[in-house]
Amino acid sequence: MRIDLLEKIDLCCPVCAWTRWDPAPLSLEVETERHGDVVSGHLRCEACPRRYPILEGVAVLDPEPLRITYDRPDFLQAYLWTHFADLAKESLDPDGPPRGDYFEALADQRVSGVVLDLGCNVGRTTLDLAARADFVLGVERSYEAVKRAREIVRTG
User: Fold this and answer.
1) Which of 70, 74, 73, 86 has its CA nearest to residue 120?
2) Are 106 and 34 in contact (CB under 8 A)?
């Protein structure tokens, strides 16, 4: 999680927002930071005792995390192939799922303001938008997909 995220958007406790209809802000408690990213820590609700962990750079804001079907290695690999096969440095399995060309439609559009990519999965659209937008935030329920997207950002 980028350390400057809370300067750009206001995060609130999902439980307080849902149960009290009163968005309570989250404050950041950093344990480990690396190159402007929070690697580990917590987001703490200022109104209730809840703390949301930041694990391997991923803020887990789901109050009741559940295992998403595409967290399975075979599903995750299919998403990675579909979203990033064109950028692979080595030859990929020709029998893999077909790569989509839906990213090309976004290629030349400049986007201003904050962009929210809901259901960003492994982050291809988020990364493509980041090259043309002021600020992009990808949101995904799959911890494994977000963890892989962050790895792609780090390693290219």
Assistant:
1) 70
2) no
* Token pair 């887990």: residue: 60
Residue 71 in 3-state DSSP?
helix
Is 51:44 a contact under the CB 8 Å cutoff?
yes
State CA 31 to chain mean position distance. Answer: 20
Tokens coding 145: 């997909």
pLDDT at 90: 60
- What local confidence, expressed as pLDDT, does residue 21 receive? 77
Angle (deg, nearest 10), helices 143-155 and 73-84? 40
Q: Is the pTM of this model over 0.90?
A: no
Q: Rounded to whole angstroms, how far apart are CA atoms 102 and 55?
A: 31
User: CA-to-CA distance for 6 and 156, rounded, in angstroms?
Assistant: 25
Q: CB of 136 within 8 A of CB of 129? A: yes
Q: What is the pLDDT of residues 78-104, one digit of tens each?
A: 777 777 777 766 655 556 555 445 555
Q: Which residues contact 105 (CB under 8 A, 6 or more apart)?
A: none
Which is it for strands 37-45 and 133-139: parallel, antiparallel or unpaired? unpaired
